[in-house]
Design brief:
The complex is a heterodimer of chains A (about 140) and B (about 140). The mean pLDDT of chain A is about 95. With about 140 residues, chain A is α+β, with helices and mostly antiparallel strands. Chain A is about 30% helix and about 30% strand. Chain A has a 5-stranded mixed β-sheet. The longest helix of chain A has 16 residues. Chain B is α+β, with helices and mostly antiparallel strands and about 140 residues long. Chain B contains 4 helices and 5 strands. Chain B is elongated. The mean pLDDT of chain B is about 95. The chains are: A alpha+beta (about 140), B alpha+beta (about 140). Strand 1 of chain A pairs antiparallel with strand 5 of chain B.
Chain lengths: ~140, ~140
């Protein structure tokens, strides 16, 4: 298998607070991340694409096309935004934990994937919330 | 169990396909579509899969792994212009995808070991772009 990974950055704020928990339980569950004013991170997003290497071009896909697609579908929605207010998926009871951010981003990427990147598979995405925390979703 | 050794080498390359238009070359290869070439500090991670030897406690001696990587990859490629000096890149475009597959092709035979084998190869062209190959 040949796979190509591109790394992107976005700065975004969020607050971890579940409407299904009491204030006390929220504070206990999320600690500092429950601060009512929210807080932010410089997120790193790694997008991995696998597929056959085109013998003519030597590429799995054009990185520039992937960059445009990720920018249009993910980065423009997240970068310098408040996730809880600006991303519809987090307005209801979906808490923007790193795990849920990964799921929401994968859904955003999958939306028009097939028609834009026929033959190339969205193999893996990885979110680094800080240098110490990362979440990964694999196509298994 | 997996063990990984990391090495670095610096090499120059150019990715320009004369059978494609200028615009297609730009879209596929970005700034690499320049016939004069440019260079990268490549970072290569080589991963073996195997079980520790009951006597030595090692899957494979990491120093010997380093020696194999140096002989097969670093010595022939470090401080070279890949398109001119490192076959098959006189005939095949040295995209990171082709480079990682060539590195696998060179490393796989000498790493058929009694209790381990080559599991995967990851090549960073920059901090923001890497490729992986496995079979």
């Amino acid at each position: 298998m040949t796979a190509l990974t591109r790394r992107y950055k976005f700065a975004s704020s969020h607050r971890l607070h579940s409407p299904k928990l009491s204030d006390e339980e929220n504070s206990k569950t999320y600690g500092k991340c429950n601060n009512p004013w929210g807080h932010g991170h410089d997120y790193i997003l790694e997008v991995t694409v696998s597929g056959p290497v085109n013998p003519e071009t030597g590429r799995v896909l054009s990185p520039a096309r992937l960059d445009n697609y990720v920018r249009e579908n993910v980065l423009e929605a997240f970068d310098h935004r408040d996730m809880n207010r600006d991303i519809p998926a987090f307005r209801a009871d979906c808490v923007p934990t790193a795990e849920n951010i990964a799921i929401v981003i994968r859904n955003m990427l999958e939306r028009d994937w097939r028609e834009r990147f026929d033959g190339a598979v969205l193999e893996r995405i990885r979110i680094l919330e800080t240098r110490r925390n990362s979440v990964e979703l694999r196509n298994e | 169990m997996y063990i990984t050794r990391k090495v670095e080498f610096s090499a120059s390359h150019s990715c320009y396909n004369p059978r494609l238009s200028e615009a297609e070359n730009r879209a596929l290869y970005g700034e690499a579509a320049d016939s004069h070439g440019h260079g990268h500090n490549y970072v290569l991670e080589v991963t073996l899969e195997g079980e520790p030897d009951p006597v030595t406690g090692m899957v494979f001696d990491l120093k010997r792994l380093k020696d194999v990587i140096n002989k097969e990859v670093v010595e022939p490629m470090d401080h070279r212009f890949l398109n001119r000096e490192v076959p098959p890149f006189d005939a095949v475009l040295p995209t990171p995808e082709n480079l990682v597959r060539e590195i696998w092709r060179r490393l796989e035979p000498p790493l058929r070991l009694p209790n381990a084998h080559l599991s995967g190869v990851r090549l960073y062209e920059t901090e923001d772009l890497f490729v992986e190959y496995s079979e």
